[in-house]
Amino acid sequence: MKTTLKLALLASSALFATPVLAQTPPLPPEHHTLDARGVDLVTGRFNLPPDLLNIGSGDGALSSGRFLVQGAWQDPSFRKLYLTSTSATVVQGAISIHFSRSGSTFTPTNNSGQSLKAEGTGYVFTTAGGEETRFSIDTCYTPTGNQCVDQYNIASITKPNGETITYNWTVQSYLRGVDGNGNPIIAYASRLGSVANNFGYRIVYGYVRDSITGGGGTLSTRLGEWKANTSATAYNEALELSTYVPQTLAFSGDTFSNIQVTNPAGGVTTYGYNAGQQLVSVRYPGSSTDDISITYEPIYGKVLSLTDATGTWSYSYTDAGTIRTTVATGPLGQSLTVVSNLTIGRATSVTEKVSTTPAVSRTTSYTYDTQRRLKRVTQPEGDYGELTYDTRGNVTQVLHAPKPGTGLENITTSATYPATCANPVTCNLPDSM
Description:
Blueprint: E1 5-6, E2 34-35, E3 48-55, E4 62-69, E5 72-74, E6 79-83, E7 87-92, E8 95-102, E9 105-108, E10 115-119, E11 122-126, E12 132-137, E13 151-158, E14 164-178, E15 184-197, E16 201-207, H1 219-227, E17 229-236, E18 247-252, E19 258-262, E20 268-273, E21 279-283, E22 292-296, E23 303-308, E24 311-320, E25 323-329, E26 335-341, E27 346-356, E28 359-368, E29 374-378, E30 384-389, E31 395-401, E32 411-414, H2 424-427
Antiparallel strand pairs: 1-2, 3-4, 4-5, 6-7, 6-13, 7-8, 8-9, 10-11, 11-12, 12-13, 13-14, 14-15, 15-16, 16-17, 17-18, 18-19, 19-20, 20-21, 21-22, 22-23, 23-24, 24-25, 25-26, 26-27, 27-28, 28-29, 29-30, 30-31, 31-32
């Protein structure tokens, strides 16, 4: 049986958590290599499609929700900026975009046309297509100052079509303790209150606790509950509330054993966890048994087996220095072997067993340039495609080389782009092809 690897060579945060998941998520990878079940065959992590709340359609539509990436729940539309003295990372949904830093100059480590620059007390991230994301300083607890000085929350997104999305944050102060002289130590925390755009749509977030102070429990518990998201409700500002029912995506659960997500139609998806806080089961609305079951490697948390409607798939990992070989084996003898370079986090070859009787396998190979961009894809029979990029990451040439021995000539397709880039909305569109 043939299997399909979603080698999306995906070009393509606040944690929207249930009460038990109110914690800082790990940074997502720069790139995913997912099989059809959502297992990343480079990292061994399990990823789930998002539970989504949508309002509107086409241009101006808003969405919110959460999806599982690198073992943590994140909102697919959310973004955050992390800085160090030498680097910057923009988290954009399921991926991270990295920059090197020299003072106020940021250079993308994987140049695909994006840029980052300082603006006032914040920063602006611009995609190759001209979409701008503005970040403002985060505010979090500290006895001596703002420990989130190098973390920036999303403030707004401006799209080329004129849509502006504004993120409204709530900041609350609380008593952290007292210093050696008996003086109060005032600390701060922030959470996302709502998201709205200029098309008239708004999403409002609900939480376990309205105030950090009072109400019993330890400070740590109160702070966690204040940040623990329990719902997202979508509103159409152009309509009177009496004329429609706002749609809500709700999250519940207070232990790591079961967490429920209730969609706007009332369907409940249940996520089961083990004592190690790993997702081990998923039960979708209407099911009486688990639809997905997962086991993990005990030390590093890589997926060892996954059972879904297709049967049970097993996963093994062998590391030799920076080279990892991952083998996914299916219930009908299917086999998928991925060799990856852990230094760049990319698959270098994928071997798929396309027939068990007789045994036939096909290997596709991948090479990358110094910025970890896809350079060449070589098909099982030797034909390949090769990409050339300009200094802004635009593809300027695609070379198609035929199978060896066919006598056919190479086919080259080229494109040119403006030499300078004053306006990213237009400068990364080809002048000619």
